[in-house]
Structures are given as structure tokens and as C-alpha cells.
Amino acid sequence: MPRPLSATIHLESMKHNLARARSCAPGANIWAVVKANAYGHGLERGLRGFADADGLALIETENAVRLRELGWTRPILLLEGIFDGSDVALLAEHGFNSTVHCIEQVKMLEYTRLSHPIDVHLKMNTGMNRLGFRPGEYAAAHARLRAIPGIRHITLMTHFANADELENERLSIREQVRRFQLGAAGLPGERSLSNSGGVLQQALLSEALSNDWVRPGIMLYGGTPGGPTAAEYKLRPTMTLASEIIGIQQLQAGDAVGYGSSFAAPGPMTVGVVACGYADGYPRHASHGTPVLVDGVRTTLIGRVSMDMMTVDLTPVANARVGSKVLLWGDGLPIDEVAASAGTIGYELMCALAARVRVREGALGQPA
């Protein structure tokens, strides 16, 4: 028998969340973001779950080629653009859209003859200070791209640093929109501003957010960048991680649990050992109190997460036994809640799912 740990991917939830993105940004085309192996869900599943998207967006050029091999014929956007002059040929051969965020990428396009016309997304740095041209440099970069034979359409693009907060005291979404409008004034081309946070805030910012394309990522996978919960946004979980109890220990007051003996029993208690550890992608830094469900009953992690196992408090779980079902996150326990308790974000938990974890597809509510 295989080890009793598995991740279930809910394709119907992926389709539902894509539809929610459309309802939040009516009239906009959608780039469904499938970078990082579709946030740990698998590239092929991302393609099927987001089959109704207008385009797919990712970082990895090799996976962009793979999407074409899998039969995706609609647009593909490389979110970081090209990394070497030799990549220019890939853009033309496969019809990829490329982000252009620095003068070096402009030069690569200028120095290489394109065999077929391509479309690009010109990125503006409106305060995130990772990639992109500053507003005052933007028009000049746009003019250089327009002068390149083979550049067909130029989409104007930026990325929000705090899209989950309308009025961040350091850099608000409204301030980034203002900077974008200033730098893009008078320039032709479609606009692409919103990531998941921007899409979810679209209704509150409709007067400012004019998006021809939006780029939802985490919301498509049932998580949020912050603020209201996924359930409040009517998003559904797309990944459920489940395991079983494989051992039980009876502790007395003062007995310690796990490496470092970081947890000591305050009194008599029952401890369950779960077949899941940091080598499976569960965060090692998850602390005492991180929620888990055992046989549908809410309880908590205790002690340190080890490579292959973790320990949970079974005291509140009547009739717990070896073989009891354990839900670590997903359908019944929001991944964002687990992540927050562990001091991280849902993105990391999804992307960290290890290759040794069995992955299958199933509907919400289906037994793991």
C-alpha cells in the first residue's frame, strides 16, 4: 500500500474560480497564471482547469513550449520576458507574448530579426521596484519597441505591490494607478494592470482600473493575497492535502514531543503521528497551534514538524485511532488559515508540494 498522504486537485474549483475572476473584471480578457507548475497543481491540470481563459501566463520558457505541445493554441505570456538573445527565436516560432521590462530586453529584440510578428507587454515600474521602466522612461522605451520590425502590438503593463490594500500607507493601489496613467499618457495600446488583488478590488476601483487584460494568479487556486477570506470572495479550494494517523502515543504531564523537545504535555494527553513532514512540503516552521482536522474534528499541531511526520493533539478527538483521516489544508480547512498560522502565505504551501506526494483529481467533498 502507498503511504497515506495525497493531494487532491479540484478541477471544477479551478473553473469556478476563473469564472469568478471574469465576474469581478467584466469585459477584461484573462491571463490565467500557471507559473511554478500551476502553483503546484501541475501544468497539464492548469491547462485543463483554465481551458476557458483567454491566455495563459507563466515565467518558464520551457513550460511555455510545453503548453504548445499540449495543444494550447491561444496566447501565452512570458511574465519575465526573455533571458537571452537566443530566446527571441522562441517568441516568433511559438507566438509567445513577451514582457519587456528593461533596456537589455529591448536591445535583444532590436538586434535579432523576427521571423514572425510578435506581441509584447511593456512593463512600467510604478513603485514595486522589481522590474519595469520608471514612468519618465516609459514613453522612450515604447518608441524604441514601435520602431522594431516585427513588433505588432504593445500592451501597457504594471504590477501592484499592495493590491489587497486599497490605502496602504506606503504605496496605495490608487497611487500606482496615478503613476501608470502619467507614464502611459498618450501611448496607444491595451492596458494590463491587475493581479489577483486588483481583480478582487476591481468593483471598488472601477473608476480607476481600466483593464483590457487582467492577470489573476492565487485567486484561481482558491487563495487570496490578503484581506477578506477566499470564502468571502466566493472562491473554492483547488488543492486538498490529506493524510492519516499512523501512530498514537499516550503522554503524561511533562512528557516532551519531537525533535528539540519543544512541546511538553501540560497534563495527560493523546498524541497522533501524521504521515506528512517538511519533505512533503508542509512548512517546518509551522508552530504549535497550527490547525488540522482529524476525523472532521478541529485540533492542532504540536511539537516540531520533522522530515516525514508531524504530531497533533488527539485529546479532543473521540475514538481517534491509527487510520483516522487527517486534513492538512483544502476542502474543509482553508489553506490561507493554515499558512497564516504557520507564518507564511498560501502561495508557498501550494508551490512547495513535494514530488513524492501522490496527486490525483477529485471533486470537493470526495473522500481523500
Overview of the molecule:
There is one protein chain. The protein has 368 residues and is of the alpha/beta class. The protein folds into two domains: 211 residues, TIM Barrel (Alpha-Beta Barrel), CATH 3.20.20; 123 residues, Beta Barrel (Lyase, Ornithine Decarboxylase, Chain A, domain 1), CATH 2.40.37. The chain is 25% helix and 23% strand. Helix 4 links the parallel strand 3 and strand 4. The longest helix has 14 residues. It is elongated. The model has no long low-confidence stretch (mean pLDDT 94).
The count of domains is 2
> What is the second-level CATH architecture of the largest domain?
Alpha-Beta Barrel
Question: Could you report the average pLDDT, rounded to the nearest whole number?
Answer: 94
Give the neighbour order of strands across the main sheet: 8-7-6-5-4-3-2-9
- Which residues form runs of ≥5 with pLDDT under 50? none
Task: Give, in order, the helices and strands.
Answer: EHEHHEHEHEHEHEHEHEEEEEEEEEHHE
For the CA atoms, what is the radius of gyration? 23 Å
The best one-word shape is: elongated
> Please, what is the CATH homologous superfamily of the largest domain?
Alanine racemase
Structural class by sheet pairing and helices = alpha/beta
